[in-house]
């Protein structure tokens, strides 16, 4: 059985296009697009499988879409819950000239209540044999707000830890179930809490129940805060490439650090090295071998925290 299960609330067909440059109003000749089954949790699981961890991806996807999309690491176990709802698509268009990426994401489709019930039952059943559940990705608009907290609570009652990477009210509600980590980026944190103070926001999520908060901040690195310590980690110099999968690589690194028993400093190094390496990959959900070299370029400083604040 897999050591880690990932749940993607709204899987997608990820289409990545790399162009030399982007000129609005002009036609562009590009290399063949890369199409692969994706969504944040699936990307996390694919990275973990690629790095030798026993991982299983879960979510609501019909069998036809699984067959047609594909493109995942053969070592990744797939346990999808069948649905009649078609797979949504996302498009990532990366400009080599300026390093910018334009994202076009279809909204999460409205699955049926019966779909959600079957998905929850499948996750609960599979989680009994796992060490860690990762919930990663946007939540469909018609999903009952109590779905995720109830699922996390049931899994926690069985002794399984969780990492959650989602947005808005779902992020805040998940904290009450004492997840091992929550991982918003700084934009998601600001949107969820109504202010842009990253340190104070991380402390708010700790106060809401999360045991650890990891806030990704793009080229400014990563803030890792637990009840005991806080760290700010970043690469000594930014790398150029497609940043689409960097956040998923951070979540995968947090999972790997937990499974291998790494301390906070080692986890911070892994998070930065994996996220930087993901930027060098043309598509999300894969990790080039350069991550080991990049791990020697991570700068870490202590962040002093007090109850309710961080400095």
UniProtKB/TrEMBL annotation:
Q: Which UniProt keywords apply?
A: ATP-binding, Kinase, Nucleotide-binding, Transferase
Query: A single GO CC term, please?
Result: cytosol
Question: What sequence ranges are listed for the domain Carbohydrate kinase PfkB?
Answer: 14-285
Q: Name one GO molecular function term.
A: ATP binding
Question: Where does the record place a coiled coil?
Answer: none
Q: Which InterPro entries match?
A: Carboh/pur_kinase_PfkB_CS, PfkB_dom, Ribokinase-like, Tagatose/fructose_Pkinase
Name of the protein = Carbohydrate kinase PfkB domain-containing protein
| Top-level taxonomy | Bacteria, Bacillati, Actinomycetota, Actinomycetes, Mycobacteriales
């Amino acid at each position: 059985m897999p050591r880690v299960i990932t749940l993607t609330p709204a899987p997608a067909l990820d289409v990545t296009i790399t162009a030399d440059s982007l000129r609005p109003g002009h036609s562009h000749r590009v290399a063949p697009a890369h199409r692969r089954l994706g969504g944040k949790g699936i990307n996390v699981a694919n990275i973990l499988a690629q790095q030798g961890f026993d991982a299983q991806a879960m979510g609501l996807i019909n069998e036809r879409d699984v067959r047609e999309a594909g493109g995942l690491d053969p070592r990744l176990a797939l346990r999808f819950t069948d649905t009649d709802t078609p797979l949504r698509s996302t498009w990532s268009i990366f400009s080599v000239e300026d390093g910018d990426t334009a994202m076009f994401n279809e909204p999460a489709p409205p699955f049926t209540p019966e779909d959600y019930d079957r998905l929850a039952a499948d996750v609960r059943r599979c989680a009994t044999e796992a060490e860690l559940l990762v919930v990663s990705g946007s939540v469909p608009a018609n999903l009952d707000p109590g779905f995720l907290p109830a699922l996390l609570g049931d899994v926690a009652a069985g002794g399984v830890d969780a990492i959650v990477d989602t947005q808005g009210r779902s992020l805040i509600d998940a904290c009450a179930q004492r997840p091992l980590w929550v991982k918003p980026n700084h934009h998601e944190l600001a949107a969820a809490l109504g202010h842009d103070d990253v340190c104070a926001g991380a402390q708010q999520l700790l106060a809401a129940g999360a045991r650890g908060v990891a806030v990704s901040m793009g080229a400014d690195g990563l803030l890792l805060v637990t009840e005991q310590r806080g760290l700010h980690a970043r690469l000594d110099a930014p790398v150029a490439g497609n940043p689409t999968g960097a956040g998923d690589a951070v979540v995968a690194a947090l999972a790997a650090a937990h499974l291998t028993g790494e301390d906070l400093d080692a986890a911070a190094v892994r998070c930065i090295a994996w996220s930087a390496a993901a930027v060098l990959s043309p598509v999300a959900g894969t990790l080039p071998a350069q991550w080991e070299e990049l791990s020697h370029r991570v700068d870490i400083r202590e962040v002093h925290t007090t109850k309710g604040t961080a400095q």
